[in-house]
Known about the structure:
By secondary structure, chain A is mainly α.
Amino acid sequence: MLRLLTTILLACSLSCTASAHESSFTPKLDIGKGGKCVEDEATMRSHHYELIRHQRDETTRKGIRGGKYSLADCVDCHASKKNNSVLGSSENFCQGCHEYAAVKPDCFECHSSKPRKAAGGVK
Amino acid sequence: MSEINNDRRQFMGKALAMAGIAIAPGVMLYDVKAGNDGKPASSKVRWGMLIDSNQCKEGCDDCVTACSTENGLSGGKKSTDSQWIRKVELKDMRSGRSLNLPMMCQHCEQPPCVDVCPTQASFKRADGIVLVDKHRCIGCRYCMMACPYKARSFVHEELHDQNPEVPRGKGTVESCTLCVHRVDRGESPACMEACAKAGHNAILFGDLNDPESEISKRIRTVATSQIRADLGLNPGIRYQGM
Amino acid sequence: MPTPESLRYKNKLYYLLLAAGGLVALAGLYAVHMMEEHGHIISGMNNQIVWGLPHVFAIFLIVAASGVLNVASIGSVFGKAVYKARAPLASLLSIAMLSGGLTVLMLDLGRPDRIIVAATNYNSTSVFAWNVVLYSGMFSLVIVYLWTMMERRMHVWSKPAGFAVFAWRFVLTTGTGLIFAFLTARQAYGSALLPPMFIVLSFAWGLAVFHLVQTTIYAWNEKTLDPAILRRKKNLLGVFVIASLYMVAVYHMTNLYFAHQVAFENFILHEGGTYTMMFWIGYVLFGNAVPLGLIYAPGLGDTRCVMMASALVVLGGFAFLYVFIIGGQAFPLNIFPGYVASSSFGDGQIAHYEPSIYEIMLGFGGLAIAFIITTVSVRVLNFMPQDKAYIAD
């Protein structure tokens, strides 16, 4: 199931990159603070789920903290400055792309969609 | 009391100094951190608590409030609200003596919740902290049926604005994490901090495996007990004055 | 002889029944949707009563699904022709009830969308995890068994398949009993008596369901069940009812003997309000005493009496499970022996539970699924028991 979802997401994001220039339907994302990501854009776009999923098991079950691929770090950088969240509208970073790819992320049922530090996400 | 403790401390200090050199120095420190530097939680550590019901003040629920604030719980007391820690008032049926104490996940060495969980979502970390992996929890509530301490709550409603360090969500079971996110930073659980702040010092957190830790020393010197010790689960939370 | 009119009428009735079943199942699905959307807050369940009405329905269906196979086992394993003729119907009912029960159990989960995790992260110490294997194994075994009975070329395999089902269903009901038997800390559960008790209860409930369905099918086809067969089967039901009453009595008596369990028994048998009423009136009187009268009293025991007795045994089963599951959780867990406890989390207090409409809808949805599977299968395939002209045994 997870693999299937990843494959779909992968396919969608690939087609997303391929047609990014000509299509007007590609999401206009508010990348928040942005800046240099932990991996290059293409890797993140296609593999972010595997990366955070791997680390989530390491952190939750083994207690390994401070890894590179932290969901909280994603949120810290990519929360929109408008509503201080990665969710909310189809412009918000996570929701926007996931809506476009028609994949429902399950992360934010439990995880906060807002950055760790005070409003604005300044570190 | 303090004299005895000091004597004992000196004696223990000498006796254990040699052993201390033999064991890795990091283990001896109070703030052994789980994976601050990417290392996993260590099985050399066993986190636990000693709760002194004589110091626990009737009517005070600072530990409960601190837990709610720290972990983003609503603090509500409805039967569907999560309560990770609760104040229990007890009255001895025969002598009539009354006492009160905080009750939470007892972080058993042999946790029934871990045995019964069909998906291994309930698990015990190497350092003895019993947690729910919410990525795996299917919400069957069998662990709640199995827990002898009623330590667990089920999230009955959708949640918003969780503490980024304490993920919690609808349809999964949760309980006291011993403030694992703080412990991994080398801090102590929020309830202990709040209790100390209120001047009661009824909660002592520490490494039960480290003979030099404050908690180990106290357990050696005063009579403590485990709740439902008859079940043989060896809880990491001990009580004094029961 | 069926006339064209009566056939047309029956055809209409069939689709009407199917539609009614479909509606109830849909209502169940709606309840699931609501519970998914809003969480379990809209159910009556809470942090004290963690398993509620859906579990009563699910466990009844699963236990009865195992028990109904008794009919098949007596035929295949012990070679009794009367029962052998009924083995296909019994197997069908087993599959139908298992499907209904498992659906309810699964859809009541907090995260049913993640059920696959139970297979990918299997915990071999969990009775629940064992049951996942037991349920799916039973499902497949019974389907194979049905195939060996309905396909002429496979007849030779019917006996070994019957044996396998016979063994499996004992293990399965043991597993169901163990779900509770392993809860050491709970006063109501944690007894080695529970697996055998559930096995005996399954015999009675399964046979009662079988009687109800068989009588309906005979009536539908305008046939009358041979009185000799009826007599034997009603006596069997009587024996099962007495045996299950005995097991329940022993369970409560052992508890009464243990000083630390007396308070709990006092709650269930004496001061528990709804639970006490349900136990004595619902289970003991209507679920056991009245059916036994209907079966054994001189002058009674005809088809209608057996039908009535069977329906009462089923209802009694629900009453029993309600008291066992919900009453068992309502009584406060004894965390501090020797102390009177009170807290904001229900320590020392009787827990409150009131099933919500969504739980009722979900439970009946499970029954509807079993009903639909049975109704459709009985119509498209031949499950009518075919008795020989002369019954030897």
